[in-house]
Amino acid sequence: FNIVVLPGDGVGPEVALAAQRVLTCIGDIYGHRFDFAEHLIGGAAIDAVGESLPEDTKAACLAADAVLLGAVGGPKWDGAPVRPEQGLLAIRKAMGLYANLRPLQVSPVLAHRSPLKKEIVEGVDLIVFRELTSGVYFGERTRSKTQASDLCVYTVEEIERVARAAFQAAEQRRGKVTSVDKANVMETSRLWREVVTRIHAEEYPQITLEHALVDSMAMHLIRKPREYDVILTENMFGDILSDEISVLGGSIGLLPSASLGADGPGLFEPIHGSAPDIAGQDLANPVGMVLSAAMMLRHSFKLEDEADSIEAAVAAVLASGAVTADLGGELGTVAATRAIVDAIR
Amino acid sequence: FNIVVLPGDGVGPEVALAAQRVLTCIGDIYGHRFDFAEHLIGGAAIDAVGESLPEDTKAACLAADAVLLGAVGGPKWDGAPVRPEQGLLAIRKAMGLYANLRPLQVSPVLAHRSPLKKEIVEGVDLIVFRELTSGVYFGERTRSKTQASDLCVYTVEEIERVARAAFQAAEQRRGKVTSVDKANVMETSRLWREVVTRIHAEEYPQITLEHALVDSMAMHLIRKPREYDVILTENMFGDILSDEISVLGGSIGLLPSASLGADGPGLFEPIHGSAPDIAGQDLANPVGMVLSAAMMLRHSFKLEDEADSIEAAVAAVLASGAVTADLGGELGTVAATRAIVDAIR
Ligand SMILES: CC(C)[C@H](C(=O)O)[C@@H](O)C(=O)O
Ligand SMILES: CC(C)[C@H](C(=O)O)[C@@H](O)C(=O)O
């Protein structure tokens, strides 16, 4: 398997290395060969070659079997003519990664670390399907001396495909989709609601579909997170809501994501950002990145047993308390990764 | 004082009545005369005259000393050609209410009802300044067979005036403003950040200003809500974030808001919506509306003592447990209002 690794900025390189170690261990045990090719993205690419997504990075990603990404961005590039995040947005678009999957399961051993009460977060098991290649992220922008504008556009087809992905996931889960929009204000949201309702009626009538407004959803996700199974939403709302729920499990450092397109390689990255304040100090939690690698095995390579093995090892390590500082532990990134590798063996 | 009352839909009429009772009591005690004139808005107006903001409602609001609003909207008008919310957006725009103030103080007696841990929410004391007359709420919308669009526009002047309002509030509080945007993606956010930074440097250098991205803010507000004093943000982000934090205090039914313009009357409404499921059953919590009336006394009429008196009465009633079902109490809307009136006397 040819895997492109985009370490990126901040703690990105440290966690990317952790994922490679874990995958190499999986390869040894199960007899797979994972070849890793590192390429530049984000601030690291700006520093090296002056652009956030160099042509050869893009070509390598498109030709790979899958892509692992650490993190991009940091205050270092504030006010720079090119922004690190542009590289991330550009690679999402170039690879056609329209569905961003952000699963959240609150581990019983860590529920007590949540800012929410244990009885509210215990047993939470949901997944966000965030549309990732359209909306206000990719609309036309204008700027003049006196004003600025951003355009949010959604086509029927863009909504259909991510809706189908969410309904399909719900079929394998508890059979419920909550679609989030702001249909009382936005035209794109009204289209969103119509299209999701139609795809549901025509193709997935056995799934339970409910609609929620983004503002009340921001409340409900804190008051009763256990009620949700699959949450389907557009790009910006997905960005905000999935970050909001990322605190439920006790640390954002735990959470993986997968970004998938129609076919072609997927991209797998932790939810956490580049965390420049702790970069290079062996402090980052490798779990989010390692679980992203497990998602890669499952979604891109159909290696279910191997993915299960990583997830079981992570669960065991979390239960054992062999964790990084964000979870109250004493291990560094390298030692926490070694604990996961040992648990897999 | 001439007060226009817009009861609106769902529980709106019940809570609007509660506010009038409390104000009448204040008038008796302090020797003011409050004249209330009821007008139609939202779904109630659609049902009665076919439009969500009738001309005479608008004229009455513009001529009033202040406006009290209950709530608008409900599933009854889903799919209706005119939407109840349009009336609310139209009156905000017509009255030029560019600053929406949403204070949140977590009452010590109710902190245990929060979905968050007591030690996280205890002592929270913040206020959101949400821009209310621009952004994606008021931009051009398009719709065709295959796609829809919403335009988000901000002018320099629109950002300046709400930023000034937030900095002025911070001067009277703990001296800190957190401005929230998505400057790594949106052009309007980059303009927002520039203008807020300039107004700060030129006019309020003694205030501490920090910038946060909306996605990480959605996290921080749950992890460390006590760190915030004044939160300044654009219309849509303000809608989402202020609803998110509304759960911190244990019930959204407790929270007031004030919408203010340059001069002219302000509009005061609870944060909660029309709650059609409990409408007409004497179940709604009157506190959010009553505290909105207190904000009216303070901001529009400069009646500080009178506002203090309402707020103290509400605090005493909450502490005594004379509360509605959303707070675990047994009182209805009418009885809970009477408890507040008695406490004022
Ligand atoms: C870095 C930023 C552009 C990005 C986004 O907003 O999509 C990030 O927040 C994310 O969620 O992956
Ligand atoms: C009813 C709706 C249009 C409104 C808004 O989004 O502004 C409401 O959610 C609010 O926050 O006052």
From TrEMBL, chains A, B:
Residues given in the record as substrate binding sites: 92, 102, 130, 215
Residue span(s) of domain Isopropylmalate dehydrogenase-like: 2-340
Protein keywords: Amino-acid biosynthesis, Branched-chain amino acid biosynthesis, Cytoplasm, Leucine biosynthesis, Magnesium, Manganese, Metal-binding, NAD, Oxidoreductase
Site note Important for catalysis, residues: 137, 182
Binding site for Mg(2+): 215, 239, 243
Record NCBIfam families: leuB
PANTHER family, sorted: 3-ISOPROPYLMALATE DEHYDROGENASE (PTHR42979:SF1)
Name assigned to this protein: 3-isopropylmalate dehydrogenase
Organism name: Brevundimonas naejangsanensis
